[in-house]
Amino acid sequence: MRVPVHLIPGLAALLRYPGPRTAAMAAGLADAAMETAHPCQEHLEAFALSAATLELPELQEHYTRSFDLNPECSLEIGWHLFGESYKRGQFLAMMRFHLREHGIEPGAHLPDHLPALLELVMKLESQDAMDLVDDCILPALEKVLPALKDGVYAHLLQALFLLFTAHRTSSGGDRPDPPVLCVPPGAPHDDSRQGPSSSSPAEVSHA
């Protein structure tokens, strides 16, 4: 099983504060997941159903309650990796550099905001993208998911976690194999190489 990376931009969009197009985007992403028959499909369908059923203010309340009011469920990945230590400052600086390098705008959020990092995954070379997923995104999700427990937005994070891990269960090992990124023809994936002075976005996590 391969990682259907063409679902990542949709997940990144849905993990931002909901707006008038959220329900339609959720339905479209669930349909796209259905075509892949990937295990994340069930959670994307559940989120799409909630987004279609709830009024927008209710969905916005779910978002705020899920991610903004409880630090343990924050979408700021560096906080889960490093807390408020000096290393988080290094991580933020590195993410800011790579986001700017690839034309990604985090908006009002810090540069370690999960949606921005998911956009970065789509821009990086395959190995750097895998490092960012394995060393930063997945360890943070492993902390957020138990804290978030159930809820509308738990479905999105469960879908994201499965997207990056479901294909690895067949290996039988404790440490999952690196993800195999499956990019459909025409999908946006920047294969331009980094300059010699730039660091891998996940490098600070090993420091």
State the gist of this model.
Helix content is 57%, strand content 2%.
Level-2 CATH architecture:
Orthogonal Bundle
Provide the domain count: 1
Strand order of the largest sheet: 1-2
Radius of gyration, in Å, reads 16 Å
Number of helices: 9
Order of helices and strands: EHHHHHHHHHE
What class, by secondary structure content? mainly alpha
- The 3D shape can be described as globular
Average predicted confidence as pLDDT: 84
Number of strands: 2
**CATH topology (level 3) name:** TorD-like
Low-confidence stretches: 170-198
Characterize the main sheet: 2 strands, parallel
Features:
TorD-like; globular; single chain; 207 residues; 57% helix; two-stranded parallel ribbon; mainly alpha; 2% strand
Describe this protein's structure.
- By secondary structure, the protein is an all-alpha fold.
- It has one domain: TorD-like (Orthogonal Bundle), CATH 1.10.3480.
- The protein has nine helices and two strands, in the order βαααααααααβ.
- The chain has a two-stranded parallel sheet.
- Helix 1 runs antiparallel to helix 2 and helix 8 runs antiparallel to helix 9.
